[in-house]
Amino acid sequence: MGRIRYVFGLGFLLLMSFQSLQGYDTIPWTADKRLSWKDFKGKSPVNARAAAITASGITYRFSTSGTKDNMEVDFKVDTFFYPSKSWYQPELCDEVILSHEQLHFDISELYARKMKERLANEIFTHSNVKGKFKSIYQEILKELDDFQNQYDRETNFSRDREQQLIWNEKIAKALQ
Fold first, then answer.
1. 95-120 and 129-155 helices cross at what angle (nearest 10)?
2. Which of 70, 73, 111, 147 is most buried (CB neighbours < 10 A)?
């Protein structure tokens, strides 16, 4: 399961969609790895109006063990960047836009952490584990989408440099 974030438009428009991304190259989110334009390996479409498209996603998997009355759930939640689904137009992009795109990736990681926290605090039963995972995942994706949209609005898609710096600080603090 995965979630892709696409950025389109003269400025940028956020559109979230579900897609199976197995088999795609991925870059996992880590605190040490910052995106570079070399990571954007997709081909820019002819007549593209966007400066860049970034594809990132939150994935999860889980397993259960034990009995009906004493069930243990193990899970893994990850955040990935998909290079082959991400592209940019070099003549339109600069380090500020790259920083803006990095923060979208960082925000995805922030919501992956929120999902981990919710899952860790959830009580699962044999009959509800699959449904609860799906429900929590859907809630997180909705919250993530809303937050990404707020970020783009408040920074005017990186054009408001002052707000961009405020958001950079806010997300960096949240990820500490």
1. 150
2. 111
> Is residue 65's pLDDT more than 50?
yes
- Region at 23 (left for phi over 0; alpha for psi -120 to 50; beta for the rest): left
Residue 167: in which H helix or E strand, if any? helix 161-174
Six token digits for residue 176 = 């500490």
**1-20 pLDDT, tens digit each:** 333 333 332 222 233 333 44
- Helix, strand, or coil (residue 63): strand
User: The whole model's pTM is what?
Assistant: 0.85
Count of alpha carbons within 13 angstroms of residue 175, beta-carbon side: 20
Residue 37 buriedness (CB in 10 A; 0-12 / 13-18 / 19+)? middle
From 42, 1, 7, 5, select the one nearest 19 (Cα to Cα).
Answer: 1
DSSP letter assigned to residue 13: E
Alpha-carbon span 16 to 126, nearest angstrom: 31
Residue 62 DSSP SS3? strand
- Mean pLDDT is lowest, of 52-56, 88-92, 163-167, for 52-56
